[in-house]
Amino acid sequence: MSDISADGLDANGLVLAADGTPLKRSLARAMRRQKLRALLLVAPLLIFVLLTFIVPIASMLFRSVENDIVSNTLPNTVQELGRWDASTSELPPEPVFEAMFFDMFIAAEAKRHTRLGTRLNYEQTGISSLFRQTGRKLDDIGKVTKKPLEAFDSAWKDGETWYAIFNAGDAPASKNLMKSQRGLLKRLTSDPASGDVNFSPRADVTKLLPKAAREYTAWAIFTAVQDEKDPATRDPWESVYTALILDLKTADLSGYTGPNEDLLKAAQAADLPVPAFSEAFADMDKDWATPVPWKTIQTHSGLYTSGYFLNAIDAQKTDDGVAWQPENKQILLKLFGRTLIMSLIITGSCIMLGYPIAWLLSNVSARNANLLLILVLLPFWTSLLVRTSAWKVMLQQNGVINEVLVWIGLVPDAERLILINNQFGTIVAMTHILLPFMILPMYSVMSTIPPVYLRAAKSMGATNWTAFWRVYFPQSIPGIGAGSILVFILSIGYYITPEIVGGTKGVFISNRIAYHISSSLNWGLAAALGTILLVVVLALYWAYDRIVGIDNVKLG
Amino acid sequence: MADTKNNDAFVEFERVQKSYDGVNLVVKDLNLSMPRGEFLTMLGPSGSGKTTCLMMLAGFETATHGDIRLGGTSINNIPPHKRGIGMVFQNYALFPHMTVAENLAFPLEVRKIGKSEREEKVMRALGMVQMQDFAGRRPSQLSGGQQQRIALSRALVFEPELVLMDEPLGALDKQLRETLQFEITKLAHELGITTVYVTHDQTEALTMSDRVAVFDDGRIQQLAPPDKLYEEPENSFVAQFIGENNTLEGVVKEIKGGVALVQLDNGDLIDAKPINVAQAGQRTRVSIRPERVEMDKSRLQPDAHTLKAEVLEFIYMGDIFRTRLRVAGKDDFVIKTRNAPDQVRLTPGQIIDIGWLAEDCRALDA
């Protein structure tokens, strides 16, 4: 026990509870149960929101910087390219081409090379078709080595020959190689690549013939896991032949004793030709003979990229830094600007139209106010799609408004007004749809302003207008603020209405995001655009808080 | 009743009626005339029409019928902001988004008074209520009493000749109310302003006013100075409404020499001064103030009628004793006696004789 003075303080001046424990600790203990219970009460919703809202959004936004597809698809190439100095404007050295051949071979077998092509095409137009073509023609290089080997000894035609050489069986196996190749395939195909393969690479062969063992292992895993076939009886990929020929050039087989050792030694002695990878690539597509695709791969080989964000603001990452996109591709900044300006116009129109209604609502008798409120809320109970489509009917060139204008002779039949599929259509329809979000906060603020203020102002000699402008209006500003924030934030991210009535000129940034999500499948750019939109909204909210003060916003 | 044709009348209501729904009259035939500088209080229960009268005078309600005149000219068709009447509202109605000084400057600004003169007038008006130090505060930073002082000085800052106050002290506690009652009357008299004050608090009305108009059922029941109102109520509503009062009901037996003999419902006879009764046989309600009841027969006239009363309750209240009695079958008869050294303290169960001077007991309408 610490010594307790008469006033319940211990030596350090902390207040103590009756039993001598510090009061803070005993309070915390008493509150713990309550806190736990409160937490349990909110837990279901919290978990629900976390799983269905926060986690998906976070992972979606993460895509805006995620870029592991390059290094997952071309792991060895990326590593080799790291040693290449792109500024010399020379082609990369032969090992890069060799690594590219093996990487692309596996990627093409897994049909993942087109995905990478699509990704890199965002940065350099034309790469997508280059990759697709290359994927088709890779076998040609492989055949250059496969045919001579099979011609030299037909035993190489049998899958069993290969399996006997590389499979460990009872001999020591190289677990590292197995693990790394499983990992490679897992990253490439997003398939766990686990399960029984009926193969494990022989440790001593792995040391002697590293490239061939590497490719064979990759093939064996792929065959067993993806194709669900037994690697023991099947022919390996052409790339394995190429790898073996490459290995035989340098391998020292003198001390090797194992299955098919004669076959291997004979093949080495035959000194079969190795393909020239750089020439072979140039043959497939002359673009490979230029540094351009290599630079693109090197520039975008990082695990994370700022490329999507740069694209989102009409810039791009090049090998010598950040540059603007070509003039004709600069559309997104303009679209952001248009979205902001149109949202401001919509907010402004909502204020102009909503203020008198809100004033009326808060100044008529309760029964009339209810009726009016129902009229205001009525659109809420109608489907958004129906309301937007109704505007389409109203505004189109053969629509209600044009017909009436033509009928009363204000507009000649040949020159009907274009009211839809442009910015005007979007502004009209969205003002109508968002109006209740302006009226309701305004009304709830105005209904708290007692009419006695207006009377007081008039009794002091103010005219109706002065009384309104000097006394009533300043007190209704919090309602305008709340309504404006609500309408502005809703409209800046609006999608359906601009999509239906906006045509090409009246669409918002959200429509572009939707396009990249569902049509162009450039999710990274969509995520970057979404992130920028979110940041803009938060920044505006922050600015509003600094200028007007969020305390002044009242929703009721 | 007030005389309506008065040449030095400043505020006049002539045959004013008001109806909101076209069926019921809220104000029925109101006639009132106020000389310049008078402090007049409209007193009455809620719904008696007093606030409606004030709002008609301010211009926020229009009279359905009749004429309201200010300084001899009819103001029926003049909008409120041109009437130049100062007004103090029940909940102060200080503009929350302006400082105290801005609130006070508002009526001057709308009158296009120059900045320096405006500031001088604002400070003078704040000085009248000793609130100069609060010029930069917001109304929400002030207590209720301070807010009401500001509201008062705002109503006075543009020097109106007529000031209307609509239950201005209703939201304050008793002590503050008394202080402000005093301040308001003092200011009104010093500045010579004509004031119409609406309240439902009779003490406030009695202590502040030159004259009090008691409202009930859309009519002025009595318009008189406070003392006259208390001592000489003209009808039983006023007698009941103003101060504490004992009432007994009966029939007039005879009226002779300015004294009415009234037979109560239980047969007892009492003397009263006839006010609203003219002849024998009329039913009447007699009214006697608790402090005018006598227990000492020697202080009454020898032939005065007395009543037997049973003491029910004796309450010691410090300066006075309050005794509840059963008289003529009713057990809410109250007498008040001064706490003097020779004063008897009654005990419950005691039977005593009570009586009064005929002029203290008023025979009113039934």
Written overview of the protein:
- The complex is a heterodimer of chains A (556) and B (366).
- With 556 residues, chain A is mostly helical.
- Chain A folds into 3 domains: 1-62, no CATH class; 76-295, no CATH class; 332-552, MetI-like (MetI-like fold).
- Chain A is 65% helix and 1% strand.
- Chain A is built from 25 helices and 2 strands.
- A two-stranded antiparallel ribbon of chain A has the order 1-2.
- The longest helix of chain A has 40 residues, at 23-62.
- Chain B has helices spanning 50-58, 100-109, 115-128, 144-156, 174-191, 202-208, 226-231, 236-241, and strands at residues 9-18, 27-35, 39-43, 65-70, 73-74, 85-88, 162-166, 194-199, 211-216, 219-224, 246-256, 259-264, 269-274, 283-288, 307-316, 320-327, 330-338, 351-354, 361-364.
- In chain B, a hairpin with a 2-residue loop joins strand 11 (246-256) and strand 12.
- In chain B, helix 2 (100-109) crosses helix 3 (115-128), helix 2 (100-109) packs parallel to helix 4 (144-156) and helix 3 (115-128) packs across helix 4 (144-156).
- The two termini of chain B are 20 Å apart.
- In chain B, 40% of the residues are buried.
- Classes of the chains: A mainly alpha (556), B alpha+beta (366).
- The interface between A and B is medium-sized, with 19 and 25 residues.
Report a brief summary of the structure.
Chain A has helices spanning 23-62, 68-73, 75-81, 94-109, 113-121, 127-152, 159-166, 175-189, 203-208, 210-225, 238-250, 261-270, 277-284, 291-299, 307-312, 332-363, 366-377, 384-395, 400-407, 423-446, 452-459, 464-492, 496-501, 509-518, 523-547; strands at residues 315-318, 321-324. By secondary structure, chain A is an all-alpha fold. Chain A starts with 22 loop residues before the first helix and ends in a 9-residue tail after the last helix.
